[in-house]
């Protein structure tokens, strides 16, 4: 006898649409963390912005964008005719609509970055409306805790030990050091001394990763430098070598991965899933590192992680952003079975000083992944107001 579902008549009522009534942007200013770039940012520079999506049902969602807040504000104005009145309970469809209708303006860059924050906020809304965490909405929870690696800038060797030791004593047991003088002083001895000082400070059992930061302006080194550096890093049990050559040098990445004794990672500057395909197909990465606050949001990040898995490439999200970016990475980490690490900027006010409750490490140096509705964290209005010109307008519908 054929089965006829009558779930529509007998099951729970479908959620009523939540229409988007406004999207607000909060550029973060005042304690912007140093980036280690050749043209260094200042504390008052805007490099991150928060996004608030408000709905007619009184539920708001929040996201993060790794871009100058002025560009995010301009992008939201451009996108407004496309998102106003849309159903906030359909994050993937709404985000794809924004991508599809702005393709002619250039895929990637400020528009894609802004859509990333909107997408994160829409997933937050969907979770709050259904009472489920984003991780469960993405398909389920593979883990309840995940190890964060403390992301720190490189310093001179005599300073490096003190820098990492402070965070080791806080409880971190995985570290990434990057940028700063590494590869920029034409001194392989200096590069090695920085890595040696770090390894000595954290001991043999802590995980250590190294980020050359070759997406910096006027990066001076090429493939041969990267190969020599990789061989040095192997002596210090470095888990991966990140951005070792210029970010557009696909063939150099392929050759570096082929010859390097340590795993090669990259991809943080790429946006949308289409741009990752040639890198994965050519075998450029051992580890792929899309940034959820730039690449297109949670919807796009998940697709890239799935695609990477099919190529045998490990996924570790790039997360040099804010508490909301970290919250999104945590939800992705629980929903993707191979995601065992998240990035955590050491000492950033935008990670540690925006939420009502701080992120805390357990005895093993891991973070609990929230299983509350949405992203599972709450912004503190008073704390946010310290870093943005109009926090009241940001939180108000």
Walkthrough of the structure:
- This protein is an alpha/beta fold and 397 residues long.
- The chain is built from 15 helices and twelve strands.
- It folds into two domains: 7-131 and 382-395, Enolase-like, domain 1 (2-Layer Sandwich); 136-380, Enolase-like C-terminal domain (TIM Barrel), CATH 3.20.20.120.
- Strands 4, 5, 6, 7, 8, 9, 10, 11 and 12 form a nine-stranded mixed beta sheet that branches. The chain has a three-stranded antiparallel beta sheet with strand order 1-2-3.
- Helix 3 (91-100) packs antiparallel against helix 4 (109-130).
- Residues 157-263 form the Mandelate racemase/muconate lactonizing enzyme C-terminal domain.
- It comes from Tianweitania sediminis.
Sequence-ordered SSE layout with sheet pairings:
Elements: H1 7-10, E1 20-27, E2 49-55, E3 60-65, H2 69-83, H3 91-100, H4 109-130, H5 134-137, E4 145-153, H6 157-170, E5 174-178, H7 188-202, E6 207-211, H8 223-234, E7 241-242, H9 250-259, E8 264-266, H10 277-281, E9 287-288, H11 298-310, E10 314-315, H12 323-335, E11 341-345, H13 349-352, E12 367-368, H14 381-385, H15 391-395
Parallel strand pairs: 4-5, 4-11, 5-6, 6-7, 7-8, 8-9, 9-10
Antiparallel strand pairs: 1-2, 2-3, 4-12
Helix pairs in contact: 2-4, 3-4, 6-7
């Amino acid at each position: 006898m054929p089965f006829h579902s009558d779930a529509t008549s007998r099951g729970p009522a479908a959620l009523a649409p939540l229409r988007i009534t406004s999207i607000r942007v909060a550029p973060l200013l005042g304690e912007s963390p140093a980036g280690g770039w050749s043209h260094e940012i200042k504390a008052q520079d805007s490099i991150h912005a928060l996004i608030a999506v408000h709905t007619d049902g009184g539920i708001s969602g929040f996201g993060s964008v790794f871009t100058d807040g002025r560009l995010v504000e301009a992008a939201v104005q451009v996108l407004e005719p496309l998102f106003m009145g849309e159903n906030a309970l359909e994050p993937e469809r709404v985000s794809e609509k924004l991508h599809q209708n702005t393709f002619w303006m250039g895929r990637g860059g400020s528009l894609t970055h802004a859509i990333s924050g909107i997408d994160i906020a829409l997933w937050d809304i969907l979770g709050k409306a259904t009472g489920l965490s984003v991780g469960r909405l993405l398909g389920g929870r593979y883990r309840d805790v995940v190890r964060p690696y403390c992301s720190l800038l490189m310093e001179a060797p005599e300073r490096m030990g003190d820098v990492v030791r402070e965070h080791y004593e806080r409880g971190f047991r995985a570290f990434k050091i990057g940028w700063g003088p590494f590869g920029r002083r034409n001194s392989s001895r200096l590069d090695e001394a920085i890595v040696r000082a770090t390894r000595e400070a954290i001991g043999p059992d802590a995980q250590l990763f190294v980020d050359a930061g070759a997406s910096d302006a006027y990066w001076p080194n090429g493939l041969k430098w990267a190969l020599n550096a990789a061989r040095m890093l192997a002596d210090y049990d470095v888990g991966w070598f990140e951005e070792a050559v210029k970010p557009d040098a696909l063939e150099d990445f392929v050759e570096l991965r082929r010859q390097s004794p340590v795993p090669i990672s990259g991809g943080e500057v790429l946006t949308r899933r289409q741009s990752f395909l040639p890198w994965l197909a050519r075998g450029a990465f051992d580890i792929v590192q899309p940034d959820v606050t730039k690449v297109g949001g949670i919807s796009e990040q998940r697709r890239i992680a799935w695609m990477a898995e099919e190529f045998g490439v490990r996924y570790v999200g790039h997360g040099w952003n804010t508490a909301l970016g970290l919250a999104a990475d945590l939800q992705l980490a629980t929903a993707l079975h191979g995601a065992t690490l998240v990035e955590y900027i050491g000492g950033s006010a935008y990670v540690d000083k925006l939420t009502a409750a701080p992120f805390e490490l357990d005895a093993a140096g891991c973070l609990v992944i929230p299983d509350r509705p949405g992203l599972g964290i709450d912004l503190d209005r008073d704390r946010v107001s310290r870093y943005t010109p109009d926090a009241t307008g940001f939180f108000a519908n």
